[in-house]
Each structure stands twice: as structure tokens, then as C-alpha cells.
Amino acid sequence: MSEISALNDPEIMSLFTDCGAIVTDSHFVYNSGRHSSVYVNKDALYVHTGTIARLCTQMARPYHADEIDVVVGPVLGGIVLSQWVAHALNQLRTSGETLAVYAEKADEGTQKKFAFHRGYDRYIGGKNILIVEDVLTTGGSVRRVVELVRSHGGNVVGVSALCNRGGVQAQDVGGVPITSVIMLNLDTYAEEDCPFCQQHVPINIDLGKGRAFLARQAHAQ
């Protein structure tokens, strides 16, 4: 099984592990379709408001509060993060207010995109925007949110994540600087190269996309 390899603050890591947000020694399928033995279960964090508040304070810390006008997060986890990160920034502001909005998924044919609804687009133009995300794997979702914000005239000053588990770099998200609370260097595999599949290790159907993966396999047979 894969091992977690990262230089992270032990106290911060304990916030993840104590909540059961880092699960090891199983066979997971990610949203991207890649397989691994480690899963970051961010949903285990969201039920603990004190923990998520502390982590979002860490997410806000690298940024100058007075320079962030709006925090934007993609649905669903980004809704929680945008609220708490904006709250943390507002505790540090000397004037004004940092707002929190979120982007929703909008499928356009075969191309997955994000869109602003509920009138949130009117808060973007000409503003300094911080984009927040729970777990970065490929950076694809964040890149689409960056493109959305820019299309509405917003200036994206940074991306702040709870966890960067895919070694995502600025060039992967439209040239925007990335900060993360923790970084995990995880071994992931394409299905055809997955050693756990080859060893017939049962796929976890409680976390990740394992259940959907097995359903597709059964349908293909």
C-alpha cells in the first residue's frame, strides 16, 4: 500500500487524522479515475466546525486581508470553505468586508464548466479574488473556476487549498499561485497499471468513486 510522504506541520496533520479525514490501506478510485491506497475524506472535516474554522484560518493566513475582496469556492465543499476563509480574512481587515460566493457546475455538452448564479457574478468584476478548494488532484476544477472569474473581469490573486495531493502547480490552474495547508505525495495509478487491481484487492465503495467504477465494470460485461 502507498505511504504518505510530505513535510507538514504535525499539529495540522493531527486535525486531519483525528477526524478520519485521511484514510489509508484500502483501494480507492478517485474522481479522475486513478486508483490509490490513500483517500482524503474532506467530508469528515466539514462536520467539525471548530476544526474547519482553524484550517480555514490557515488557508487565509498567506494573504493580506485588505487585498481580498471576494472568496470564491466551487460547489460543494468550496461553499463551506469560502464562508470560513472569508470570515477569517474579515477578522484581520482594517476596513471594508471580504465577501464569499460560490460557483456552480454547468454542463455544456461534453464540456464541464462552472457558472455564477444567484446574482453572484455582480460581485466579481474589477475585484481581487481568492479561489478556495478542498483537495487539489489535477487542478482541473480550479482552472475552470479561474477561467470563469476572469471571464467576468475578476483578478485572481491566488488559490488556497486544504490539501494539494496531486503536486498541482501554478501552470495547472491558469498561472495562479497556489498555497495549501498540507501537501501529500501519493502514489496513484491508471486502472490498467493499478497493482491493487492486479492483486484483486477489493475496491472501497464507501469513499471515492469505487461504487460507480464497479457499476461501470458490471455494465460493460
Low-confidence stretches: 1-6
CATH class: Alpha Beta
The assigned CATH architecture is 3-Layer(aba) Sandwich
Sheet having the most strands: 6 strands, mixed
Note the total helix count: 7
Describe the structure.
This protein is an alpha/beta fold and 221 residues long. It has a single domain, classed as Rossmann fold. Helix content is 30%, strand content 24%. A hairpin with a 2-residue loop joins strand 6 and strand 7 (111-115). Helix 3 (49-60) packs across helix 4 (77-90). Mean pLDDT is 92; it is low at 1-6.
What descriptors fit this protein?
single chain, 221 residues, alpha/beta, Rossmann fold, two-stranded antiparallel ribbon, 7 helices, globular, disordered N terminus
